[in-house]
Amino acid sequence: GAVVSQHPSWVICKSGTSVKIECRSLDFQATTMFWYRQFPKQSLMLMATSNEGSKATYEQGVEKDKFLINHASLTLSTLTVTSAHPEDSSFYICSARIFGREGRTDTQYFGPGTRLTVL
Amino acid sequence: AQSVAQPEDQVNVAEGNPLTVKCTYSVSGNPYLFWYVQYPNRGLQFLLKYITGDNLVKGSYGFEAEFNKSQTSFHLKKPSALVSDSALYFCAAPVMNRDDKIIFGKGTRLHILP
User: Fold this and answer.
1) What mean pLDDT comes out for the span A55-74?
2) A6 in reach of chain B (CB within 8 A)
3) Residue-level pLDDT at B8
4) DSSP H or E stretch at residue A80
5) Residue B16 has pLDDT above 60, yes or no
6) DSSP for chain B?
7) Residues of B with CB under 8 A from a CB of A
């Protein structure tokens, strides 16, 4: 199956600093990647859709200046949490989809997640 | 509005017994449905999906799911549970007119008791 990696797997940072999380599709090219946030004991919340070579599409209520997304290549998307605060602490998960094979029924392949703790 | 519901927060099953994790859906048009599993501090792993055709879908790790249109359900099943099946299970469906967005159920924690 398709493999998606994330780096780092966990990060602790001070309030006010910025943190970059990488999402890579290892054995396939992904024109579309997704960033999710998961709070403890809750489901995944889609934050944004990352499209290679174009601007990300953010879900309602997600601050684009706070969560910067860059999808510079067909195998890499990055999420930068700028000026992080304790309320940004969460589990961030990315996923990637092989474009165009089945459209709406495409399977998303998820990364292992990144646990962010902001002190 | 489209939705996916998992009525049980937690399911406990003895090892070796059959297991069922429930999911009901409310979606427009033809339903496409997915099951994912999440192990502690890990991302989601794809188990199986229903697009069309046979109502019984077979997936990874011996899991299967039965699509029931009249009951709008897509329950996940396994004939004989393993302790290693203990995890968080999510039912999901794509959002109508959004080629990119999936909605997830709230998740069901499955505990397999040795």
Assistant:
1) 92
2) yes
3) 95
4) strand A76-81
5) yes
6) --EEE---SEEEEETTS-EEE--EEE-SSS--EEEEEE-TT--EEEEEEE-SS-SEEE-GGG-EEEEETTTTEEEEEESS--GGG-EEEEEEEEPTT-SS-EEE---EEEEEE-
7) 32, 34, 36, 41-46, 49, 51, 90, 94, 99-102, 104-107
Average model confidence (pLDDT) for chain B?
91
A68-90 per-position pLDDT tens digit: 999 888 899 999 999 999 999 99
Contact call for residues B3 and B93 (beta carbons, < 8 A): no
Determine how β-strand B10-14 pairs with β-strand B108-113.
parallel
- Two tokens at B25? 């859906």
For B45, the token pair is: 């792993």
As a whole number of angstroms, the distance between CA B71 and CA B78 comes to: 20
